[in-house]
Write a structure and sequence with these properties.
366 residues, alpha/beta, 7-stranded mixed β-sheet, 6-stranded mixed β-sheet, 8 helices, 19 strands, globular
C-alpha cells in the first residue's frame, strides 16, 4: 500500500478527517482539520479513499494527549486526541452542515451546543463482550475484541461492575453493566446532559397546554417532567417494560400505550381535535374548537419511518419537539416536514464526549 501526504480540510460525521488527493476525498481517523499528515492508503473506492494515520507532520493546536490507553485500538471513542472545546465546535458544525446538505434547510437557527459537565467518567452503562477469556469492546472496524480493564469515559460504578465481571470469568456473551439497577428500561447514557435536555424541553413549552403526545416515550422521561403544563398526556413506546414503568404511579391525566408509534399516532390522529377539518367538524356553521397539541418525538438512530412522518403531518400538532441522536436521519426527516412546520431552534447537546455521537433537539411550530 502507498503512503501519501495530506492536508486535513475537515472532520466528517463519524469522526474521520478528510483530505484530498487529486481531488478525491481521503478519510483518515485521529486527525484534525488544518493538520498535515502522512497516511497509508488501505482501501480505494470509486468515490473516496480510506487511509490510516502514519505520522502527524504538522500538528493542530487543538491536539491533546488521549487519556485512555486503548484509544486508537478500541472502536468506542473517536475524539480523545482533540481538545474538548474543539470537539464541541466540530459537532456543532456537523449538525449545521447535515441540516443544510441533507435537509436542504437554509438559515438554520442554530443555538450554542450544550456541553457535558464531565468529559470523562460520564457513562452510566456500557455493554462489554466476552469471548475466549477476553472481556472488552470490539476493536475499531473489526469483530475482534480488545481486552479492557478500565473504561475512562465510564463512571466509577460501571468500572467497578466491570472489575467484578472480570473476576467471575464469565461465559462468552454480551454483558450490560449499569450504574443503576433498573435493567429493563432505556435511560440516556449521560445523566447530567440528560437532565439538561429535559430542562430544555420543559423551558420550551409554555404553561396551561392541553394535550401532550410523547412518542418513543420510554418510561416517561419527558412526559413526567411536563405533567404540570398539560391537561392530558399520552405516551407511546414499543417497549412494554418501559410502558409498565411509566404506568407506575401514573396520575389520572396520564395514558401510556405499548405499541408501534406510527400505528398509535394514526389512532390518536383519528380522534383528536387537531385532525383535518371535515363536514363533521362543523356545528352551526362554525368549526369546533381546536385544542393545541404538543408532540415530542425521540426516535432511535434510524429516525422516523415514512409512516410516522405522514402520521405527524396528519396529526398536525401546533408544536413539535424532535430529539435525535443521529443528525443525518434528523436532516432527512426535517426535509420531509419542513413544508408543514417552521423550525424555531436547533440545539446540539454533547451527550457523548470523546465520541463522534451527537444529540440534537429541534423545536418546530406549525
Amino acid at each position: 500500500m502507498r503512503v501519501v501526504d495530506l492536508k486535513i480540510e475537515d472532520i466528517a460525521f463519524g469522526g474521520k478527517g478528510v483530505g484530498r488527493e487529486q481531488g478525491k476525498a481521503v478519510f483518515v481517523p485521529y486527525t484534525i482539520e488544518g493538520e498535515v499528515v502522512s497516511a497509508e492508503i488501505v482501501r480505494e473506492k470509486k468515490q473516496f479513499t480510506e487511509a490510516e494515520l502514519v505520522e502527524v507532520k504538522q500538528s493542530s493546536p487543538d491536539r491533546v494527549e488521549p487519556k485512555c490507553p486503548y484509544f486508537g485500538r478500541c472502536g468506542g471513542c473517536a475524539y480523545q486526541h482533540i481538545s474538548y472545546e474543539h470537539q464541541l465546535a466540530i459537532k456543532w458544525r456537523q449538525v449545521r452542515d447535515a441540516l443544510e446538505r441533507i435537509g436542504k434547510l437554509k438559515d438554520v437557527p442554530m443555538r450554542p451546543i450544550i456541553p457535558s459537565p464531565e468529559q470523562y467518567g460520564y457513562r452510566n452503562r456500557i455493554t462489554v463482550h466476552a469471548q475466549d477469556g477476553v472481556i472488552g469492546f470490539f476493536r475499531r472496524a473489526s469483530h475482534r475484541l480488545i481486552d479492557i480493564e478500565h473504561c475512562p469515559i465510564s463512571s466509577d460504578e460501571v468500572n467497578r461492575a466491570l472489575t467484578e465481571l472480570r473476576k467471575q470469568n464469565p461465559r462468552d456473551g454480551h454483558y450490560t453493566l449499569r450504574a443503576s439497577a433498573n435493567a429493563r428500561v432505556f435511560l440516556q447514557t449521560n445523566d447530567a446532559v440528560a437532565r439538561a435536555l429535559r430542562d430544555l424541553v420543559v423551558d420550551l413549552i409554555p404553561p396551561n397546554q392541553q394535550l401532550l403526545i410523547d412518542a418513543y416515550c420510554g418510561a416517561g422521561f419527558f412526559a413526567k417532567a411536563l405533567l404540570e403544563k398539560f391537561e392530558r398526556v399520552i405516551g407511546i413506546d414499543w417497549d412494554r417494560f418501559a410502558i409498565a414503568a411509566a404506568k407506575e404511579n401514573a396520575k389520572e391525566k396520564e395514558t401510556y400505550i405499548a405499541g408501534d408509534v406510527g400505528t398509535e399516532l394514526k389512532k390518536v390522529g383519528a380522534v383528536h381535535p387537531n385532525r383535518p377539518a371535515s363536514e363533521h367538524d362543523v356545528e352551526n356553521g362554525r368549526l369546533r374548537s381546536i385544542a393545541p397539541t404538543t408532540l415530542i418525538i425521540d426516535p432511535p438512530a434510524i429516525g422516523l419511518s415514512a409512516d410516522v412522518r405522514k402520521a405527524i403531518v396528519d396529526l398536525a400538532p401546533t408544536a413539535l419537539i424532535y430529539v435525535s441522536c443521529n443528525p443525518p436521519t434528523l436532516a432527512r426527516d426535517l426535509r420531509d416536514l419542513k413544508d408543514k412546520f417552521i423550525i424555531e431552534s436547533v440545539t446540539p447537546l454533547d451527550m457523548f464526549p470523546q465520541t463522534a455521537e451527537i444529540e440534537v433537539l429541534v423545536h418546530l411550530q406549525a
